[in-house]
Amino acid sequence: MISEKDLKDFTAYAKTLGINGIGFIVAKPSDIFKEKHLLFKNAILLTMEMKADKIVKAPSKTTMKEIFRTYLGLGVSVNKLTQFLKDRGYRAHAGPALGGEANYPLMAERAGLGAIGKHGILITPEFGPSLRLAAVYTEIENLPFSDENPHLWVRDFCDKCNRCVRKCPAGAIYKDAIVFDDGTKQHIDYKKCAVPFSNNHGCTVCVKECLFFSQGYEKIKSSFLAE
Length: 227
Ligand code: SF4
Ligand code: SF4
What we know:
Layout: H1 4-16, E1 21-26, E2 42-49, H2 52-55, H3 61-87, E3 92-95, H4 104-110, E4 115-116, E5 122-123, E6 131-138, H5 153-161, H6 163-167, E7 173-179, E8 185-188, H7 190-199, H8 205-209, H9 211-214, H10 217-226
Helix pairs in contact: 1-3
Bound molecules: iron/sulfur cluster (2 copies).
């Protein structure tokens, strides 16, 4: 059980490390990648912004540097936040920003931090899809887990938009989702995406072209929900 003070201190410390969003969720077995394991199922999801002035240049070396700056910053931050919890007597382990054990966008969506767009990336009110995710897993049972998500209207917007489907240079984003045997849906063909991602500075065209990046969440929300 975490005390109110320790949770408040944790949140304040996260902000000093450049963390922008914090959400709390219990990981489901279906969130965890094959042959990966979590020591604790209680997850603290963390977001860090990728700066828009760098992402707008995608694909480019500048964008690639920003992607890795964010991975590094977030990676260092989750390690420090994990250590913070351990120092206060709570067992925890870090989920790295790059190559994690579980599906961060799925967990972050359930935690109410945003909604997953057709491009497979979490879209948030603050930065649209221009962010990276990582997690801290912990034994702490009384985290303020959320079961509400006010952002799921984004899915309906995506169904009308499809801009990333048209703009993806690899044709890796499908207009209609692939439905797997277990009922989960996915719009992204990761094998196709891997080619421009590897050969062209991490691609990132789908982030740059997303309307939530260029126009902003609140503007789209007010016009879309008013229709
Ligand atoms: S990173 Fe590039 S190739 Fe991959 S889905 Fe986005 S736009 Fe398509
Ligand atoms: S570009 Fe359009 S369809 Fe693709 S994720 Fe963004 S809002 Fe959704």
